[in-house]
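Researcher: I'm preparing a figure for a lab meeting and need a structural model of a single chain. I don't have an experimental structure, so a prediction will have to do for now. The sequence is pasted below. Please return the structure as tokens so I can convert it later.
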Amino acid sequence: MTTPDPLLTVEQAAGRLGTGVRFIRRLIQERGIRYVKLGKHVRIAESVLAAYIDASTVPTLREARSRFGKAA
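Model: Understood. Here is the structure written out token by token.
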């Protein structure tokens, strides 16, 4: 049996990202992040937040260069 993915409040998600609540609410409004609607309450799964962080992470120059291979 797998453990369920914890659902975070908007405030908790903002704390995890080190941002303000307004930023999280804007992501939700612009459909920039998946969320769960429970009545009038909004929750964000921890895995969704982790995926957002991974997708938003900018690679280093070394990582970016290695994708294209070495120049001749």
